[in-house]
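Notebook entry, structure prediction.
Reason for the run: the old model in the group folder had no record of what sequence produced it. Starting over properly, with the input documented here first.
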Amino acid sequence: MQRTFLDLWVGIFVAAGIAALLVLALKVGNASTTFNVGETYRVLAEFDNIGGLKVRAPVKSAGVVVGRVDEIHFENQRFVARVAMKVDKRYQFPKDTSVSILTSGLLGEQYIALEAGGDSAMLKDGEMLKITQSAVVLEKLIGQFLYNKAAEGGTK
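New structure, fully documented this time:
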């Protein structure tokens, strides 16, 4: 009887551990937070570099999730990435809103940040955001730093 009681508790502990790992995997994979609001409008933005931005990445303003990335594709004529975002209709943004790709968290999850402008006209469904800032690529920054340091060393 004692052995089966111990086996039962070990089984419960193992099942709880597996459930915790599943929750953690969903949290890291951004699958646990869904953005299912019926009324949304779609806005577009073009970036020179989107880094590791993925579909379903959050769109935030002032730290609050106001939408999700809906679609990402490469614009072959202009050689830029076009990102389509679905924003909740409860949140209206001016036409001169700026959009940036930023990184958050320890794992480097990338998201889109909207910073409202001062225009009185609001964005409508399907409009393009003009003021964009691409993702910061760490490798490119390190390369620039090393190049500048090498150039400084050569002139002395």
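Summary: Helices lie at 2-28, 138-155.
The old model has been moved to the deprecated folder.
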